[in-house]
Amino acid sequence: MGSFAMTFRDLLLPALTYPDTTPDRALRSGVALARRLGGNLTLAPIQVDLPELRNPVANALIDLDRKARMEEARSAAAAQLEGVCGRIAAEEASVPITVAPVTAKLYEEVDEIARMSRTRDVCLVPVGPSAPESRGVAEAVLFGSGRPVALYPDDLEISPADGFGAVAVAWDGSPRAARAVADALPLLRRAKDVRILVAVGEKPTAVTGIAQELLRHLSAHEIAARVDEVPVGARPIGRLLADYVAAERIDLLVMGAFGHARMREFVLGGATQAMLDSPPCAVLMSH
C-alpha cells in the first residue's frame, strides 16, 4: 500500500440527558468506536433548556416553573457525569477527547445535533432499547447533516483497537451506496478484510456481477476486496444483513441510506429501517 492514507480527524459523539440519559456502556462503546475510526473525538452532552410557562394557575397548583428548573438542573448534572464517564473511557482507550456540553431547547435537541454534525467527519450514535431517544438523533443526522453517521447497538461492548478486522460494503450500485463507499475509504484502506455484499434480487439493480466495477475502483485505491453474492430469497433484507454479519464476523457494515418524504410522512427503505431499529454491528451509513 502506498504512503498516502486518508483518515478521519473530527468525530462527534452526542450524549442525551433528558428525559433519559445515554447509558454509560453506550458512551464507553462510542469512545472505543472512535478509536477504531481514528481522529479526535468531541463528546457533546446535550443539556435541555425548558421554557418557562409563566402560568399563574399552574404555578399555584403544582409549581410548574420550579419543577422545570429542577429538571434543567438534573439535565446539567447528567451532562457533567457523562463528561466524566467519557474522559475516563477516552483515557483507557487512548482517544484524544474534548468534552463540550451544549444547551438546546426542549424538542430541538436533535436539530442541534444535526447542525453540529455538518462540520464533523462522522457522528457516532448508539441505537437500541436502552437509548430510545437516540433513534431520532440517528435519523436527524443521517438525513439532515449531509455527513455519514456511525450507528452501533447500545448493548454492544466495543473494544478499542486500531481500525477494523472485517468490513463489509452493502452494494447495489445506487448513488447512496456509492456515497457510502466514498465516505468509508479511510476505513477500508485500514481494514484487514474487505467484503462486498450483494443481496441478489433485493433490488432490480442488485444482480450477479454488479460489484465488478466497485472491485476495480477499490483496487485503484489499493484496497483488495472480495465479493459475496447472497440470494435474498424470502428473507427481509434486515434479516439477511444480520445473518451475514453474524456468519462472517463482520466488525463494520458500510451502506447507503434510503429515505424520502411522501404525503407528509418520511418513508425509509427496508434496510435503512432495519439498521435504525437494530443494527447487528457498527454501521457506517451515508445518504
TrEMBL record:
<comment type="similarity">
    <text>Belongs to the universal stress protein A family.</text>
</comment>
<feature type="domain" description="UspA">
    <location>
        <begin position="166"/>
        <end position="285"/>
    </location>
</feature>
<dbReference type="InterPro" id="IPR006016">
    <property type="entry name" value="UspA"/>
</dbReference>
<dbReference type="InterPro" id="IPR006015">
    <property type="entry name" value="Universal_stress_UspA"/>
</dbReference>
<protein>
    <submittedName>
        <fullName>Universal stress protein</fullName>
    </submittedName>
</protein>
<dbReference type="Pfam" id="PF00582">
    <property type="entry name" value="Usp"/>
</dbReference>
